[in-house]
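Exercise: predict the structure of this protein bound to alpha-D-galactopyranose.
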Amino acid sequence: MLITYNSEKKLFHLHTSDTTYVIGIYDEGYLLGLYYGARVTDDDFSAFCCRLPNASFSPADPVIGEHGFSPDTAPIEYGCNGAGDFRISAFSVRGAAGDNVTDLRYRAHRIYAGKQSIPGIPSTYVSDDSEAQTLEIDAEDAVTGVQATLVYTVFADSPVMTKRVIVRNPTENTLYLERVFSACNDFPTMDFDLVTLYGRHAVERTMEKRPLAHGLQGVESKRGVSSHAQNPFAALMRHGATEDAGDVYGFNLVYSGNFSALAECDFNGSTRFIMGINPNDFEWTLGSGEAFYAPEVVCVYTDKGLGEMSRIFHRFYNRHLIRGKFKTEKRPLLINSWEAAYFDFDTDKLLAFADVAKELGIEMLVMDDGWFGKRNDDRSSLGDWIVNEEKLPGGLRPLVDGVHARGLKFGIWYEPEMISPDSDLFRAHPDWHVHVDGRAPKVGRHQYVLDVSRADVRDYIYSMIASVLQNNDIDYVKWDFNRNISDAGSALLPPERKKEFFHRFILGTYDLMGRLVEAFPDVLFEGCSGGGGRFDPAMLCLTPQIWTSDNTDPIERLTIQFGTSLCYPASAMGAHVSACDRTGYKTKGDVAMWGTFGYELDPRKLSEEDREIVRRQVAAYHKYYDLIRTGDLYRLISPFENRFRAAWQMVAADRSSTLFTLVTMRKEENGMCFVRLKGLDPDRMYACAEDGKTYSGAYLMRAGLNVSEVIRRDGESLTLYFSAE
Ligand code: GLA
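Solution:
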């Protein structure tokens, strides 16, 4: 049993193979989060129920008694607002009386096999009920009558737990949800560093680490999307924990909209961590009988360091998040027209790309932005998804057929949730964009956001895209989203519901994308948002790969890919070789090989020498495909810590092979460098394909490789493949 309930002690144990989470039902129905960490089966956690009762004006529960218990100092499982717990609250409801004091107490629980999906919101899944168990705890506020069901799932094959919340209003009155976080964790200590991923366009997911301090700290998005600026990921690393050892708790919100991840350390030296929908610009009117579903948080714990946390996320996402045909089916190696031609292309040029691409072994041509309306730059036509026949005479057919006739697949670009002020769609429907009456909305990249919280808008966009996909034998769609949302408002929402907009927008996105993905199961969808501005687990449920960054410079890509790899697997990271001249093609290929791999250049311009390198890369792509998609990532030298170089390794799950890559960012003339590999079997012998020598796993991991030559040349890279004999 993964989940047990001890009715005598009123304790829930949620076990995975390596972790345990303990919840207690305390006097008066207070739900307490008593333990989260390495596996422990004890059933007495009474020492953790209260901390310093009555410390520093903390109010006591009147029934339990003045010296018994204060919600302010207890490890409250799901912290509520205004009823004596002064720490950051996960939940706050305003009732008919107008106040927002909220106090949830235990009412009932259920334990069942499997895991349920969340209505309207993507989430992790099981293929068979035997893969997980779920605990639902119903809690209630006696005065407002609001009910919150805390939902926990633990998995049999992964040290992973998911947490989410369902709020119900069984009363006659209308209730107002002010805050509904998905996860709340109280830790008895504050000896942690907080790890987060900040960034901006072309510099996504930079790893940042800060020691927790008394008070509040954390990250959020108010941009309407998960965003370049902060990713909905956070980890708490116990002081002293490293890449390879020590306690790490990782949290990733399966949501693409405004989020908040906050840690507060109180006067007791304890830590509360909460993650969920950002309560700023949010309120939800919950009518009588209605329910609200919060997205889920994926929680990973390991005592083996940050690297193992990442590997747990990667395996888990490949098994329980990414879905559809391309979860397992090999993804085509693509060439994209964007950096090759920008808006300047026509059928002949694209077919000429296809001719060379075919000759190089590339498998799919993707036509990026610029094929529709009058779009010759980024100032017009979003929403007018009608082929520009000046560029593509006779429509898509001749091009798509021509590409297919050359033996390549064909992909197309869309930015469905956007509308250009200069578009026929905007002229026909001047209230279809996101706006607030009386205010001229800000423009971003000369465009407005289309109000996909509206069903009529979604239906229109759906039919425009579906007819193109139906009639043209399209194999791939790149789904872009190139601005953040300001002036948030929908023409259809009444004033009292305006603060529901951001969440309704995201629900609309999921509905639109979900319908298209379901209707076209053979089409590979790739997510994108000005590069990686919407790189989150919810998107990965819909699009199995996401364009990681518009920055294709292989040296800049190192930090971007290292940061992204904190929780997202290689199978998800769009990575292309481009024509940028920072390094040679070998290094560009070695870096892009870490992700979904492809090209983003005019293949006609490649020299014969570079074409030969590309042919070798194509062969390597096929050879290493399974290893990279299903293997374990070991980050050996992090570009966040080392100014000179970065190195990483993919190791087959059965340790039968490994691919090692090192890239020199800045040369060291007289340096010596030895890199020790990780994750191998010390007792097996590994043959190196490149130098023809054979090494024991012990030698490679303890003595290491002498890579001193590679570190003496700027932009140089080394890739070595070892297979066990
Ligand atoms: C975004 C994407 C790019 C490209 C352009 C097209 O910036 O990230 O890859 O598709 O839009 O306008």
